User: Fold these one by one.
Assistant:
Number 1:
Amino acid sequence: MRIGLRNIPFVRSVTKISLGLCLALLPTVSSQALASDLTDPAGERLFFLCTKCHEVGEGARHKVGPHLDGIIGRIAGSIDGFNYSMAMRAAGESGLKWTRETLDSYLAKPSDFVPGNRMSFRGMSDAKNRSTLIEWLAAVSASAPGKPGSEPAAASGAPPASFADIVLAMEGDPDYGEYLAGECVTCHQASGHADGIPSIVGLPRAYFVRALFEYKTNVRSNEVMKLRVSNLANEEIAALAAYFSGLEPQ
């Protein structure tokens, strides 16, 4: 004689308890999944590719590229305090808005989607990776940004916290910076285009100064840049920052 397990009282009780626990846990699992959008390790790892040029999240500031807070729904080339390329400004004026779909097309190959823009990233070919990165950005970028383009405390009279702050407190001479820029434009295009080498035209002054000091102190490891900046005096760094930050990308 065959006995079905469901006919045994103990098994029936355990089954009911297990089903009840599963139903009770469903809302909790759903909430955790929703919260994980903000801390998705895969999305955060993919964004590491972007961190040399972009910041995102509370207090984000412009670097080589604009901050990415509020990116979903933003008109291209529209954030104050960042010197966009003429191509990106024209795209925004023509109605380009950053949605999940347009970001996906742009990240696949930026130079094709907005020809003439100065983003040096060659593209992300994997559609799944693009989707993961975009969803992570959409979640994280909802934070309120800081004040892009604002100067560090040293520029407002507070005691300098580093050598970079000492230079930022100086008023650089852009004419002298133009004289010194000859070596820079042998690699970085004077037009602001970025064909594999990041553009420094229109770079925020504070970011420019801190980047040069990071090369001088081996925080950044590019040997060519280290050689170029190793003998620069503070006045020369201030002058170069004043010159390049004042240029408009072509």
Number 2:
Amino acid sequence: MGNIAFAQSGDVIAGEKVFKQCKGCHQVGQEAKHRIGPHLNGLFGRKAAGYEDFKYSKSFRRAGAGGLEWHADTLDAFLENPKAIVSGTRMSFRGLKDAQDRTDLLAYLRLYSDNPSDIPEADPTAVGVDHDLDPAILALQGDPEYGAYLSGECTTCHQAAGGDDGIPSIVFWPEDDFVVAMHAYKSKKRAHPVMQMIAGRLGDEEIAALAAYFANIEE
């Protein structure tokens, strides 16, 4: 079984503080509306200049027509220097030069793009290096029948048949890899607010059971 570590997530609380620099023009949340700038709900995966009811600059409309979409990499580059990405933007914001501030802000904004299929960070972000998960947790023998009982919440997004329609397949994952991934979400070492929430509700035995079920789902 491969060992896995995951990209560190940003600090949502710190990101909310960084967002204070943006909130004079942008809103997020349930009651968010367009102001000087468009609201930022559902930002991840959205095409630039994607709202028909907001009056974007010509430069932003050209960028959107040219294929610019908001993902972690493009948002990071835009936040660092907006005019380098959209030269004619009307934004007076000069950018965030501190990489950690950008990472924290993106973690905060992800909270308002909570459909996994719209979040590129739902794609696998694992790299093959050592993890620090307790070996006793990896040694747990999961009950696949219990895992099948628990799997309903997983299969509302992940296809039980193993397909990948914008959301990564979890079928036939090695059990250790599945367990490490879920605990990385649970400890917020792996970035994805929906998965962090789901994993946070699961105990060690439940994670082990799900791992055993999905590792041999058709057997």
Number 3:
Amino acid sequence: MSGRSILLVPHAGRESNLQAASCAAEVLTASGISVRMMAPQDSSILSNHPVLENISLETCLDKATAGVELVLVLGGDGTFLRAAHLAHSADLPVLGINLGHVGFLAQWEIESLDEALSRVIERDYGIEERLTIDVTVYGQNSEVLGRSWALNEVSVENLNRGGVLDAILEVDGRPVSSFGGDGVIISTPTGSTAYAFSAGGPVLWPELDAILVVLNNAHALFTKPLVVSPHSTVAVESNPDSFPAQATMDGFRSIDMPAGSRVEVVRGARPVRWVRLDDKPFTDRLVTKFRLPVKGWRGPHLEE
């Protein structure tokens, strides 16, 4: 097992989280796997920690991911999305253990950390590819204002809460509907249970290849969500007389959109490599995380 290395990305805001990170580091190190960790904003919280102060802290992405076989995330969905950015950039698999509340993106809960670490040590896990989206924002003169990507969604939002964003939705180079409202959410199947769901969108099973479009509090005749081909190009053009907007990817990467700008969204060139520790269906995860009522279910009739 010599030469193996894992990047640990914990949510360092709570003592219990640091304890989980410490446990993971000790188990992995004892198995001959070197551990490095992304430095938190306030590294002083690790200075007197008996275990984590001895872990190599990295601030540079290239150094953090060089030679790493897996990114291990300990935290909630926000921590996972930030870690997925590291993993995506370096084309590394990412595994999430939930320390938060809902934790829809995590593979397992903190109670199963020991088993998850054992599976990682033995390389007893699978990898599936999750669809991403690539995002480009253009100015009024077709100049590129910024590029980014998202695992969950890009949300085009009006920056003036006293007014509405006047825009038009376009799919595959053809106009669909003009609207005024808070904005529009363009989501992957993975992100369909996040912001898009809160805005009234449907849940898409993650193995589905599709792009979801949800108008957010729109004043328009047609406001139904759209599920379009993964090969489609979805665009939103703001009116030159509208308010400035912002395209926000996964809740923490943003590109400013002056009035009259345009955002184009296509299927991502690189998926996120998602570590799977079991083969349980997405249906079970949906029921568990949303605490859906299933009492009285009898199951399919099986002929003997």
Number 4:
Amino acid sequence: MTTSLSPLLEKFRAHLEDEKGSSPHTVRNYLIDLVDYERYLVERMKLSLLSGTHAAIRGYLGTLSTDHAPSSRARRLASIKSFYKYLVRQKLLPASPAKLVKSPKLPKTLPKVLPVEEVFAILDMPDLKTVLGLRDRAILELLYGGGLRISELCGLDLLDIDRSGRIVRVMGKGSKERLVPVNAQSIRALEAYLSRRGELLAVIRKDQAPEAMFLNFRGGRLTPRSIARHLDTYVLKCALTRKVSPHAMRHSFATHLLGGGADIRSIQELLGHSSLSTTQRYTQVTWEQLQQVYDSAHPRA
């Protein structure tokens, strides 16, 4: 962020980065929300962050109701709640004014999951004659083969993958490390890319990241936005009409494992979820599976 932060928000930023180990993306979103909230307090309510009230927070959320989706308002409130919890823990406030503010009701949506044949079609799209095509194939195989978050994949370094053991060391949310097994296809795709990865570092340029696993054409660490853009290209080449995000590959990984007989607690560990309820949202039982269970289990079926 280029906007200068007030002292309290600077302390909160340091808390998120140094103590909680939040990702730069998460920190940025928190601060964007809180800067906007602080502006409302100061300009409209003549209040400081420390003097914010339950009514002021509700009033702020009310100003967002016409041009912000419920999910966006819920995120703003979550940022405010987290900030005030921090102030209470620091003994700067006796209680959080946001504690009893209710979040907007959000529609319950199932994550988008691709059929297996569509996933395979996307995986086959990169041009394996080029180093960038080999890189993209390895990326797609790891997204689907390991169920990695896009931020986790972009953060991988060369030393994070044990190719012989087919294990990937991932730094997840909150700087929690986990080991993720991947399939042989992913390792083969990775080795094919690594055999030519040096081409991306052949010309010395500024901001190169020789330790990073996945590099852009200039030798820098690949970003989530770039991967999403490349994925869009491959989806278009497959003539798929649906929108496919990198996270959809993670959803598909979890759902396909569940459909193949994996138990949900194992999937929880693979995805790096601290809560089982989060994993349950990431997985969905298809109508065909329900029909098969019904036909095999009901006495009158």
